[in-house]
Specification:
This protein is of the alpha+beta class and 190 residues long. It folds into 2 domains: 32 residues; 150 residues, no CATH class. The strands form 2 sheets. Strands 3, 4, 5, 6 and 7 form a 5-stranded mixed β-sheet that branches. Strands 1-2 form a two-stranded antiparallel ribbon. Helix 2 runs antiparallel to helix 4. The longest helix is centred in the N-terminal third of the chain and has 30 residues. The radius of gyration is 24 Å and the shape is elongated.
Length: 190
């Protein structure tokens, strides 16, 4: 009986030592510098008055620029725009073309959808409407894609399309997504 008790205590002590040592090794691995590029998802305060940094994200530096842009577009779509399609169409001479599109069930309707939650969201009936909504949409899309505070090698500019067609001045009353937008001509600059 004493032998079994001693074996139990020795086994528990060994488990604690192995677990503690493994934890120290794991902790030191996480302290090591990671090869990442840090990016920001921009937005506004709750009153849509001030531009804010909503979320910091890191990408592995091994990703190329197109992969980083696609990850940014997927993140924005999912977390800021209810899964509405945001597609990187092309990159030419440092200018990225981004197509904003509707969910298939919203494309053909001429009135706001009555579907609940995110299923009823739309660029044209939601995010492009109202001065505050248009402002938030413009700030979030332009700044997140252009990364004005990022010091690394990045894109020169962006051009937005809606439903496969370039957004032109006057198409929408409340958004400023027309033409080629660069860091130097960001709408609503500070």
């Amino acid at each position: 009986m004493l032998k079994n008790k001693n074996n139990l205590w020795i086994g528990l002590l060994l488990a604690v030592v192995v677990g503690f040592t493994g934890g120290l090794l794991t902790q030191s691995w996480y302290r090591q510098a990671k090869i990442t590029n840090n990016f920001v998802v921009y937005g506004t305060d709750t009153q849509a008055e001030k531009i804010e940094k909503d979320l910091y994200i890191s990408f592995n530096s091994q990703l190329n620029q197109t992969q980083k842009l696609e990850k940014l577009s997927n993140l924005l779509s999912r977390y800021q725009f209810c899964g509405l399609p945001i597609e990187i169409k092309s990159t030419e001479n440092g200018i990225v073309t981004i197509n904003l599109d509707e969910h298939p069930w919203v494309k053909t309707v001429n009135t706001p959808p009555t579907l609940p939650g995110c299923s009823g969201q739309s660029w044209r009936f939601g995010y492009f409407q109202g001065s505050a909504g248009g402002y938030v949409t413009t700030v979030t899309l332009t700044r997140t894609f252009l990364q004005p505070d990022y010091q690394g090698n990045w894109i020169k500019g962006i051009q937005f399309y809606y439903g496969g067609q370039p957004i032109k001045e006057g198409d929408w009353d409340h958004i400023n997504l027309d033409g080629v937008i660069t860091r130097e001509n960001l709408p609503y600059s500070k």
